[in-house]
């Protein structure tokens, strides 16, 4: 059973950071969906419900997603999802169930930096940053590799671009963890592919490292992307073997790039689609 030694409802994020740093063992609570699974006593838990972090705010050049925005709020944010290729909607709508998504928060999902996270995989392919009270704004790709510091995440920021994007994953059962997940997005003239549930933390490939440059990738370009993705490190657990994940990552990469690209003709689309099924070309 999860127990709390002390409960603090912070009036603002600065107060929350002070408590976090000066009370030994203190933790900030998001939705509590992962925390509640552990049978332990947390010496001090900090609630940010009064800090105004439960909104998605739009500015001229970015979306600011509060740390206490729920996954359900993110799933139903029509304008945000439309502007980002619906990848966040696709990433979260199969996570457990609606009741769970009404409680789980974006901040908890991102700050935890879990290897199985669908949310991080989708955000990583976009132009995303996190905002922390002490460290300020940090690119998400940098943040996921940072050590766990005593800091408070306040917002996830997604910059506005003309995104072409697609999110793909494989689950052995509806609502289960992803065995592997992939998100491809093209913005600022560059393709970005994030691969998560390896089962380690998600990794991002872009530009020359990915091997795809054109807006309408050819079968050869997609084959290079698949080879690059399969070159990442994978391992085994109860959801799948290292070999199985490596194979699936390549197939989902090809599929996500083809679905994200806006092909001008049916012929170009069909030629690129062939890379999804030509195993010899992408092995």
From TrEMBL:
Matching SMART domains, A to Z?
A: CO_deh_flav_C
The FAD-binding PCMH-type domain covers 1-163
Q: What is the official name of this protein in its record? A: FAD binding domain-containing protein
Checking PROSITE patterns in the record gives: FAD_PCMH (PS51387)
Which molecular function GO terms apply here?
Answer: FAD binding; oxidoreductase activity
| Annotated InterPro entries | CO_DH_flav_C (IPR005107), CO_DH_flav_C_dom_sf (IPR036683), Diverse_Substr_Oxidored (IPR051312), FAD-bd_PCMH (IPR016166), FAD-bd_PCMH-like_sf (IPR036318), FAD-bd_PCMH_sub2 (IPR016169), Mopterin_DH_FAD-bd (IPR002346)
Q: Provide the species name.
A: Collinsella ihumii
UniProt lineage? Bacteria, Bacillati, Actinomycetota, Coriobacteriia, Coriobacteriales
Q: Name one Pfam family in it.
A: FAD_binding_5
